[in-house]
Amino acid sequence: MRFHRAVYRFWLFCTSFCYPAREVPFQAGGEINHSEYHAQFLRPFSAEELLDIRRVADFCADMVGWVTDYQTITPRPVSAEQTAIFTAYCRSNAELAPDYALEIYRRLRIFHKQSHVRSFFWGAYDRAIAEKLPTTAQDREERLAKAILREVYGEHDTCHRCHAVGGLKLYGKTNWHWMRGEFNWTKLRGLLPGNLPPNKYEGGRLAQRACTPDGYARMMEEIFDARCASPQQMHAQAHAPGAGAWDAEGLYCAACVEVLLGERLWVWCDARQQRESDSVREDCCYGWGCRTQVHNIEHAEMLNHFCMPARDDSEDPESHRV
């Protein structure tokens, strides 16, 4: 109930001051102090209620940042610093209302409405909360961390593979779909071996398979399913450098998920194309190490490159095909 109430209040704040923007009384002889004007909306709430509203605002900002990261073309490293940059960027925009965050999550695409006021919430919140809790900023942050959520189940859960404490940031069969915010399709392509990442034909097919609302969950379920790969492929991935034991019921940190995808993503891609295609393509003798697949789209379409190299393309003088 506290969460729903805080969502409604934050939505009401956004509706009043964001879109459409309510006219702010003109102040002659100086700039309009938007933070002070907006703080008038927040002052009637108690300190506990303000902290709840702030948690909802943070949640919406994180959601916008998550979708922004999903959309990005350039692969990004998984780091707390990167997350902080995204959150700071999102907080500088006025388009953070709960209905907007929900809509972009469903569409997996950022679309910008006209912003009338920048930094429209956090400045007003800082003014209001400082009056209700005249303590240090650190004390207020500690109280904020306990707002709405009184108890968190699983906050000390560990990664099944590396045993690092990951808590709610771990991935498993109940939340594989959240991976798409951390492993966009460009990053997925980068985890393929050899020269497969710049293969535009296979990159497009990977995006079609994975980048759907339930694509990531289905992909991860099938990656753990031995029936999706031939015995030869399972043997190859089991003996790959750094290969480890994986359990479909386990929880994994982002770093270990990246290792898992590095081992098995190409196997899954090959298994999927064999199931989907009417005719199985002949394997290229250079496998994923083939250089021609990068610049010759016809060659990339005609032959299968999700296979281990039988010959070394870099040492073959006849491999410089056009």
Structure commentary:
With 322 residues, this protein is mainly alpha-helical. The protein folds into two domains: 2-145, no CATH class; 167-319, no CATH class. The protein has 14 helices and no strands. The protein has helices spanning 2-17, 34-42, 47-71, 80-91, 98-107, 122-132, 137-145, 185-190, 200-210, 215-223, 231-238, 254-276, 292-295, 297-302. Helix 1 crosses helix 3 and helix 3 crosses helix 4. The longest helix is centred in the first third of the chain and has 25 residues, at 47-71. It is elongated. The chain starts with a helix and ends in a 20-residue tail after the last helix.
In total, the number of strands is 0
Q: Based on the structure, what is the oligomeric state of the protein chains?
A: single chain
Tell me the strand percentage band: under 5%
Structure classification? mainly alpha
Map the helices and strands.
Elements: H1 2-17, H2 34-42, H3 47-71, H4 80-91, H5 98-107, H6 122-132, H7 137-145, H8 185-190, H9 200-210, H10 215-223, H11 231-238, H12 254-276, H13 292-295, H14 297-302
